[in-house]
Design brief:
Length: 181
């Protein structure tokens, strides 16, 4: 029993000390980059620092997400997912993650879709983050592949339609003579 209790205390101790330092850094008004730098110097992971900031002051969550994904851009999607699971609004998290790790925007966008964030909310976040939504969405259908090709009139299968020559009085476009103007 003592070993179990000791194991639990030792397991919690690093997180609580990082939490205390993050909380005190937040209280003294340290910049977010300094908060992350100080906590990392004490051996805390980026995810645990992000969790500590959110737990201490969720109003700074979007800024903390930005700092976290800037430090670990390859983990931007998982850090964004962690932030949403910690209670931050998905639109703020998506915007911050795509803005601060633009090269990871497709991965963040995809992860947010997997989490069930509505596409219209994601598109608004992408635009706010300065991303081109057309590069983040799947391509839509470009037309009917069964449709007749160019220069084929409806109802005619595969026979090209040649317009009548000018001046032949054919067609319904007026007379066959050019206008004087």
């Amino acid at each position: 029993m003592r070993r179990l209790l000791l194991g639990v205390v030792v397991g919690i101790l690093p997180f609580t000390s990082a939490f205390a330092d993050v909380a005190s850094d937040l209280e003294t008004g340290q910049p977010m980059a300094s908060i992350f730098s100080n906590a990392q110097a004490q051996g805390s992971s980026v995810e645990s620092i992000l969790g500590s900031v959110i737990a201490s002051n969720s109003g700074l969550g979007a800024e903390a997400v930005c700092s976290a994904v800037t430090l670990e851009p390859a983990n931007a999607a998982s850090l964004a997912e962690f932030a949403i699971a910690s209670g931050l609004p998905s639109s703020a998290v998506a915007t911050s993650a795509m803005q601060c790790a633009p090269e990871q925007a497709p991965a963040v966008f995809s992860r947010m879709q997997e989490l069930g964030v509505p596409n219209d909310e994601l598109l608004a976040s992408a635009l706010e983050a300065g991303q081109d939504p057309t590069t983040l969405l799947e391509a839509t259908a470009a037309g009917n592949p069964q449709a007749p090709g160019l220069n084929i009139a409806p109802g005619q299968r595969g026979r090209p339609v040649t317009p009548p020559p000018f001046g032949s009085n054919a067609g319904g476009g007026g007379g066959g003579n050019a206008s004087p103007s």
